[in-house]
Amino acid sequence: MTKSVACYFWIPICLTFFQCSKGKSEDALALVFLGSPAITSVEPKIGTPRQNNENGVYPPTQIVIKGSNFGVDTVIRFNQLPAAISANLGTELYTSVPDGATSGFLTISKSGGSCLPGTASGINCAGTEFFIDCYSVTGNLYGSEIEIKQGESQSIEFKGLQTKAFRSSLILGNAKLTVTCDSNVTVRLFSTSCLATDYISKKDPSIPLNANANNQFYVTAFDDTCTVSI
After folding, report:
1. Which residue has the higher pLDDT, 173 or 65?
2. In which domain of life is the source organism classified (predicted)?
């Protein structure tokens, strides 16, 4: 009689435990496929696409994205440009800056989701700002960047054959870079995705800059004091 009573009470307890465990597993599985992704960190948040120019060959910056609920069919975009995923560990995504990437938003979307262009929001979407920097990858090869503000001029001294790195953010539409020296100079201007265009041995060059964007460029001169104007 005692054994029958014990069994009577044990069976419902076992069933209840099994049903609770099953329910939690199903909830977790549903979250993986249905919930929105979340980003807790992106390292680094500044990088470069692949560069191949006379100053050197630089590989694309490797990026680690940490967070949760990334799903199994994740899409990473840099300003709407898709990037290949080298590894998806569930809470970590590994990728690299794709060719043609520009500063803007790095976004993650899951299967059936989408991110609104130029934003970090959408359906099953998460995102954060990411910045393209064409110079930092060189390890400050030519010293610290010199900032020239729009509408500003600076006198820059060059000793021997010397190259200096510059940066200028255009916030008021179009502008030109003008370099005035006694001698010829060479200018290397980077596009917003780090493609380099060289203006070799020019006298007082006047070069159109990338509108409404951060511009990075090098100036090479020989024993001269030049005026750099934006």
Report:
1. 65
2. Bacteria
Residue 26 in this model has a pLDDT that exceeds 80:
no
User: Widest CA span of the chain, in angstroms?
Assistant: 111
Instruction: Label the pairing between strands 56-58 and 104-115.
Output: unpaired
Identify the CATH class of 141-229: mainly beta
- pLDDT per residue as tens digits for the range 138-175: 999 999 999 999 999 999 999 999 999 999 999 888 89
Q: How far from each other are the two terminal CA atoms of the chain, in whole angstroms?
A: 97
In angstroms, rounded to a whole number, what is the distance separating the alpha carbons of residues 52 and 19? Answer: 59
Pair of tokens at residue 187: 């200018």
| CA pseudo-torsion sign 178, 181, 183, 185 | negative
* One-letter amino acid of 196: A
State yes or no: cis peptide before 44, omega within 30 of 0: yes
pTM equals 0.81
Contact (Cβ atoms closer than 8 angstroms) between residue 40 and residue 126: no
Class for the domain spanning 38-132: mainly beta
Instruction: Provide the residue ranges of all domains of the chain, joining segments of one domain with +.
Output: 38-132, 141-229
Which positions ≥6 away from 23 have C-beta within 8 Å?
Answer: none
